[in-house]
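Support request, please re-run this one:
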Amino acid sequence: MATIDVINPATADTIGAVPNMTAEEVDEVVERAKQALPEWLDATPKERSELLYKLAQIIDDNAEELAQLESRNVGKPLMVSRDEMPFAADNLRFFAGAARVLEGKSAGEYVKGYTSLIRREPIGIVAGICPWNYPLMMAAWKMGPGLAAGNVHILKPAEQTPLSLLRFVELARDVIPEGVLQVVTGDGVPTGQRLVEHPDIGLVSLTGDVATGKLIAQNAASTLKRVHLELGGKAPMVVFDDADPEQVAEGIKIAGYWNSGQDCTAGSRVLAGPKIYDKLLETLVPVIEGMKVGDPADGDDVEMGPVISQDQQKRILGFLDRAKGATVLTGGSTNGSNGYFVEPTVITDVSQDDEIVQDEVFGPVVTVQKFADDDQAIAWANGVRYGLAASVWTRDIGRALNASRKLQFGTVWVNDHLVPITSEMPHGGYKSSGYGKDMSIYSMEEYTNLKHVALKID
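Re-run finished. Output below.
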C-alpha cells in the first residue's frame, strides 16, 4: 500500500506515515457505512446522544496525549493545542444535547381535512474533509452535528495532519458502532475526490481554501449532493480612534498570530483611525517583537511555532517579496531554524487593492492601514471577496452596533477577536468564504432533510 509521510514542521523530520488510499479503498469504506446505516437510523436520539458524550469524554481523558500529538504534527505551541481539546469536547457535548431537541413546525391542520407534520431526518452517509490547521477540533465540528442528526460519518483529515484524528478514533474504537464513524487518509486526488463524487454520499462538508471549495462544489454537482463550505477569510480589525491602543495591541497579538496566523478568522488586516494609528503602531511593534517563536518542544512558553510546510513558508514569503512599496516594521523573514518558520510580521504603507491586502496569506502577517473616517473604514473592511469574520474596537456602543450592522461578515466581534467562539453560536461566512454553518443548532440544518407528512382526516 502506498503511504504518505507525516512531517513535523518545526524540525522537518518525518514522524510517521499513513495510507494514501485509492478510490477503490474509499469505496470499501462507503460500503461499510452503507451496511451500518440502517441500524444507526433506528438509533434513538438518546442513543446518539450517549455516543457523543462518550466521544467527548475520550477527548477529556486523553487531552494531553492528543494535544502533544497535534503540536508535533501541526507545529503549534502546546498552549494552542491544549486550548483546543476542551473546546472540541464541549462541541461534542453540545451536539449530544442537541440530538434530543430537534425542532420543526408544529403539527396542525393547514389544509382542511388534513393534518400536516414535519419530520427532520438524517441525510444518510455524509463526509467531512478537514483542514490541516485544526485537525481534531474541526473534525469534531463536523462529526458532532452529523452523528447527532443520525447520519453515519466518513472523515478525511488533511494529508499533512492526520495523526490526532486517527489516534482519537483509535481510542474510541470500542464505543463507536461498526461503520458509523470512519476515517480515510490520502491526497485530495484520488481520496478526497472519490468522497465528493461517490453517489452514495449525500453531503460533503469542507473546511479549506476557496479554490478547493469551488472544485468540490463543481464535482459534487454530478451527483447533486449537498455541499457545506467553510472557506478562507481576510478578517479586518476596525480600530476606531477611541479604542485603547494597549488592549488592541494585545488583541492583535492573539488574532493575527495564534496558530502562526493559520486561521481563516485571523485578524490579518488592521484598519486604524487617523488619531490612533501612530500610537497603535508604537504599542504594537514591541508586543509582536516580544513573542517567543520556536519549536513547541522547547517549552510551554513558546507562543508561535512554524507554518505547516515548506510550500506554505515559500508562499507566505512570496507575498512579502511582492509587496513592493510596503514597509515591514518587524519580521518579514524566517528565523534561521531548520523548520518552516516565518517571523511574526507587521506591514504598513499598503494600499487597499494590493495583493497582500486582498488575498489570504494564511500566515503570521498583519497589514495596518490608516482610514480617514468611519465610512472609509467600513468600505475597506468590506472591500475584499471574503466574509468570514471581523472585529470592531471602540468604546462607543452606537458606533459598534452601526459597524456590526454594515460589516458583511458571518461573525463580528466587538473589542475582541478570535477568542469568543462558542459551541452555541454559528460559524460560517458570506461571499467567497462559503455557505452553511458550523457549530450551534443551526448546523444541524446542514445535516438533515425536512419531510412534510400530510394525513387525510376521515
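Residues 78-98 form the longest helix (21 residues). The first strand starts at residue 3 and ends at 8.
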